[in-house]
Design brief:
23 helices; 6% strand
């Protein structure tokens, strides 16, 4: 339907008006009054739904859903990894030595998470607040299960903790780690001491000696505790039959730097793998909020051989938004803003934004410059409202002007979002700016002088963390034959972060990772492909917005 040239807005836009914060943690003024029930909310809230990992890009609403469940009135506990003493694990001399010699700590991390989650559920369900309550609970479990031979090993495990169900998570982690440390010290204390006192002691060990130490460590860090914990989970599940109360363990802020990068992604993988064991507890929902880029880094860092995406598909709740859902987000917030600012009346988005941008509906124009997530559209609307302070409506000129600061902010946010996975992304985006075209062929992206300059910028600096482009840049510097895979990997990364869309043949449309297939491997990309810079970044990259 064609839009009228102008609509009447009866109230003036005051200075400082906005439709909320782009961060759910600081959005209390709007978040709950304007909450939109995205389909993921029902899946995340429903106890029997298999989804346990709320996966989405930054700003897609993961924390908003966590906060919504927190306010639902059901018993819950929220785990913030920053409050856990996992730094104690990464600083353990014994465990650092095992890492250095190549020992596999995955079973230890898996046991760590299962233990922590078991104890958290026990504390939540049974309201264990002190040592007496802890011992009383163990007594009840003993009375019920001690005659079951299959439960004896699990009861023995719980006996070690019978007075400690009430202690905090960080105390739990310290105690478990200390138990392993004492066993490792008894088994290989002399080598651990040499590792502490001598620089790079592990590199002085022969392959045979390392293999021997790894084998000895494996006897300690083995699957016995996991077997005992499986029995504990069964016991808790049996003891929860008939309890209709819904319990939630909510885990957020995994994207913070809560532990040393050397073990962080192995710990996240172990947490994901531990979740499915708790599906046996029918009235418990564990919900983990995890950014898409963090999941990618987990896969990069830990390898697909043992972490296979398809095995976990049913446990993921993917947050993707449709146009009408995002329009509802904005519409609710605009209406609430004006109800609060001016008593009475009903002001809609169309009243405040009555002018088409060129021939395009203003909301459609703004949405095309987002990655289809609430954070982006809220940020764009706020920038436009800021420029229109003192007026009755936002003009199309002001929308275009707001696009400049909005686009710069989105580029900065994109680089920050993917910093841990693709740390050289800023250099790649600068490379696009030099090409000065929004639609680029693979040949244009491979221009000899410019691509060699980019390879030198990346390859001659120290490699940052787990940067997949660095070794390819080094190879491209050494031989022109390696430039093709370097360029295609750049396209793979730009597509994955949604900085560009790709067109794989003249008959196909441009596709984008935030709407279509989330990633392509570099090796699968054809030589005649074209890329199109996402409209969100055009102004930030100083590109011609008419070259489309």
């Amino acid at each position: 339907m064609p839009r009228p040239a102008k609509r009447s807005n009866p109230v003036m836009l005051a200075k400082g008006m906005n439709i909320g914060s782009i961060s759910a943690e600081t959005d209390d003024d709007f978040l709950f009054d304007c909450f939109v029930h995205h389909p993921a909310v029902e899946t995340a809230s429903r106890i029997q739904a298999p989804g346990m990992v709320l996966s989405g890009r930054t700003g897609s609403g993961k924390t908003a859903i966590i906060r919504y469940i927190e306010r639902s009135g059901h018993p819950h506990t929220t785990i913030d990894p920053n409050d856990m003493s996992l730094s104690y694990v990464s600083n353990s001399d014994a465990l650092r030595f095992l890492q250095a010699i190549g020992a596999d700590l995955d079973l230890l991390f898996l046991a760590l998470w299962k233990h922590v989650l078991c104890i958290e559920f026990i504390r939540l369900k049974y309201k264990v607040a002190d040592e007496d309550g802890s011992r009383s609970l163990f007594g009840r479990l003993w009375d019920r299960f001690s005659t079951d031979d299959r439960k004896k090993r699990s009861l023995k495990y719980l006996r070690e903790w019978e007075g400690k169900f009430w202690i905090t998570m960080d105390q739990n982690i310290k105690e478990i780690t200390e138990k392993y440390e004492s066993k490792l010290q008894a088994e290989m204390g002399a080598d651990i001491e040499k590792f502490k006192s001598r620089g790079q002691y592990e590199k002085q060990l022969s392959t045979e000696k390392k293999s021997e130490l790894v084998a000895r460590a494996k006897k300690i860090v083995n699957s016995d505790q996991l077997s005992e914990l499986a029995g504990v989970i069964d016991m808790i599940a049996d003891n929860s039959d008939g309890d209709q109360t819904k319990y939630y363990i909510l885990i957020d802020k995994m994207d913070d730097r809560w532990v040393d990068v050397s073990i962080r992604f192995h710990l996240i993988r172990a947490l994901i793998e531990s979740l499915k064991a708790f599906k046996k507890i029918r009235n418990l929902k564990i919900l983990l909020a995890l950014r898409t880029d963090i999941l990618e880094r987990v896969v990069q860092q830990t390898g697909d051989l043992t972490f296979q995406r398809e095995k976990f598909d049913e446990y993921f709740i993917r947050l993707l938004w449709e146009e009408e859902e995002l329009k509802e987000v904005v519409q609710k917030r605009v209406r609430l803003l004006f109800r609060r600012q001016y008593t009475g009346g009903d002001v809609s988005f169309e009243d405040v934004f009555p002018y088409n941008v060129g021939r395009v509906d203003p909301f459609v124009y703004m949405l095309e410059r987002t990655l289809m997530r609430p954070r982006d559209i809220i940020a764009f609307v706020n920038e436009a409202l800021k420029l229109a302070a003192g007026q009755y409506q936002v003009t199309s000129t002001q929308i275009r002007e707001a696009e400049g600061s909005y686009s710069a902010g989105r580029r900065q946010a994109l680089e920050q979002e993917w910093k841990s996975t693709f740390p050289t992304l800023p250099k790649v985006l600068d490379h696009l700016t030099k090409i000065r075209r929004t639609v680029i062929s693979l040949d244009e992206l491979s221009d000899k002088d410019q691509i060699e300059e980019l390879a030198l910028k990346i390859g001659t600096e120290r490699q940052i963390d787990f940067d997949p482009l660095h070794p390819l840049a080094v190879a491209a510097i050494e031989s022109p034959a390696n430039i093709s895979i370097f360029v295609k990997t750049i396209v793979e990364i730009l597509y994955r972060v949604a900085a560009v869309g790709i067109k794989q043949s003249p008959t196909q449309r441009y596709i984008y990772s935030h709407i279509d297939q989330p990633y392509f491997s570099a090796s699968s990309l054809p030589d005649d492909l074209k890329i199109r810079v996402h409209p969100m970044l055009l102004r930030a990259l100083s590109l011609d917005t008419h070259d489309r």
